[in-house]
Amino acid sequence: MGVSQSLWLSETGYDIASNTSTVRIVWSSTQSGGRYNSYERTANYWVSINGGNETEYSVSYTLPQSTTISIVDTTITVNHETDGTGTVSVRTWMDTHISAGVVTKSESLTLTTIPRASDLNVSNGTLGVKQTITANKKNGGFTHTLSWKSGSYSGI
């Protein structure tokens, strides 16, 4: 009698303004065998964001014969690093209480890098000479308001 595991991580979207992504975690289990005991079991999984400390979660499940069941199907919000990068790692642990014993699985996902702050460039900087300020957008959806001040003069 065997138990196989499937663990799937998927980035379902991201938000530039909040520097976050939504990630779906799907963990399923298949028992290939004719025996079934119907008592409820507890399984654990751990989630690490951006290589940080793991957060542990516990879930209850039963393991019917010759069936695939969903242990976890959840969506989480992940905060990206300040440079817009992000990763999620998940590992699972389940004691099947049948001949398959303890079954584990782990997966990692590198998230879309979210564009962050735009770069500003200013021309030569000589007093009395017209200056050009350019914003190099990291994302086409960004808008900018540039303000300047020199002595008692200012503008937007």
Topology:
Blueprint: E1 2-15, E2 20-32, E3 41-49, E4 54-61, E5 67-79, E6 87-95, E7 102-110, E8 119-122, E9 133-136, E10 148-150, E11 153-155
Antiparallel strand pairs: 1-2, 2-5, 3-4, 3-6, 6-7, 8-9, 10-11
Tags for this model:
156 residues, mainly beta, four-stranded antiparallel beta sheet, three-stranded antiparallel beta sheet, 11 strands
Give an account of the 3D structure:
With 156 residues, the protein is mainly β. The protein is built from no helices and 11 strands. The strands form 4 sheets. A 4-stranded antiparallel sheet has the order 4-3-6-7, with no helix packed on it. It has a 3-stranded antiparallel sheet with strand order 1-2-5, with no helix packed on it. It is rod-shaped. The N and C termini lie far apart (72 Å). The mean pLDDT is 87.
Distance from N terminus to C terminus (CA atoms, Å) equals: 72 Å
| Contiguous uncertain segments of 5+ residues | none
Shape: rod-shaped
Number of strands: 11
Strand order, largest beta sheet: 4-3-6-7
Briefly say what this structure is.
This protein is mostly beta strands and 156 residues long. It has strands at residues 2-15, 20-32, 41-49, 54-61, 67-79, 87-95, 102-110, 119-122, 133-136, 148-150, 153-155. Strand 6 (87-95) and strand 7 (102-110) form a beta hairpin.
